[in-house]
Amino acid sequence: MQSVKIVAPGRVVVEEQPIPAVGPDDVLVKIHYVGFCGSDLNTFRGKNPMAIDQVIPGHEIGGTVEEVGANVPAGLFEKGMSVTVNPYTACGKCSSCRRGRPNACRHNETLGVQRHGAMSDYIAVPWSKIIPAQGLTPRECALVEPMSVGFHAVDRGQVTDIDTVAVIGCGMIGLGAIVRASLRGATVIAIDLDDEKLALARELGATYSINSATMNLADELNRLTDGNGPDVVIEAVGSPFTYVAAVENVAFCGRVVCIGYAKDDVSFHTKLFVQKELDIRGSRNAMPNDFAAVIRYFLAGGRDNAEKLISATVTPAEAGEALEKWSANPGKVFRILVKF
């Protein structure tokens, strides 16, 4: 079978690999589409210290069941069923796992980062990680995992219908947060530097949008919230500017939810932490109920928006060129899918 591999910064190859053996507790998935995410882009750029050497990337998976191991409970999976995959591991022993939050497992290994991923014709995974998605196409299934990360951030922010939620960053994960906050009845303010992304954010549920490159962010947020600031700010960029902006602009007694990794140190005036009595929360990966919520959203009509989230579809042979183009202009990409 073919596998896409990032063998060095800026270098991608397609290699022949054996089809993986199917263990008694495994399901063999025929891969149809895999999405490139920001961690894959950072690996390609040589800026992902968590990635193993010469990694096969990919954890945004759309496929079909090909073969089922002997110990897999009968009736759960049928050949040809559309599925996606929960790509995270959990040790079951650390404090996160014991508290029922395996998405933040201290020893997590994500497909395509700390272990080889799914950018191959086939992948074998434990049956407990298979997420059935009957009614969706494998192409739509490849969008479930990144959307679920945004859904999880909204859950971390405990968003309700009385909240005003500002989402900073309208990439794929930020759009997931906008969709989920809108589904919960919140008033959503989308913030980005790109008008095309803001237009899509409004289509997906944002009530208002702010282009922070051409508008004064603080003034606009104050105008839209009667001077109070948003109840919840979800940071989905990962830059010092957006981290500081989230803390400065959130309402008193508000919640700040951080998804993005800032690669440089961030300097805060900690007075605001105390003066505003803020809840500042990290949001990592997603929980099974977040995957289920995204699938339900797609089945309930959200699939009409699925194609708008796909910036390009390429072959394995074109994967390296696609990453080069994305690296040169990262602000214009939602998701690139590799079709097998």
UniProtKB/TrEMBL annotation:
Residue stretches in coiled coil: none
Domain Alcohol dehydrogenase-like C-terminal: 173-297
Alphabetical UniProt keywords: Metal-binding, Oxidoreductase, Zinc
Cited InterPro entries: ADH-like_C, ADH-like_N, ADH_Zn_CS, GroES-like_sf, NAD(P)-bd_dom_sf, Zn_alcohol_dh
Alcohol dehydrogenase-like N-terminal domain residues: 23-133
One Pfam family this sequence matches: ADH_N
Gene3D superfamilies in alphabetical order: Medium-chain alcohol dehydrogenases, catalytic domain (3.90.180.10), NAD(P)-binding Rossmann-like Domain (3.40.50.720)
Keyword Nucleotide-binding: no
Co-factor(s): Zn(2+)
Annotated transmembrane regions: none
Example of a GO MF term: zinc ion binding
Family: Belongs to the zinc-containing alcohol dehydrogenase family.
Protein name: Zinc-binding alcohol dehydrogenase family protein
Organism of derivation: Duncaniella dubosii
Organism ancestry: Bacteria, Pseudomonadati, Bacteroidota, Bacteroidia, Bacteroidales
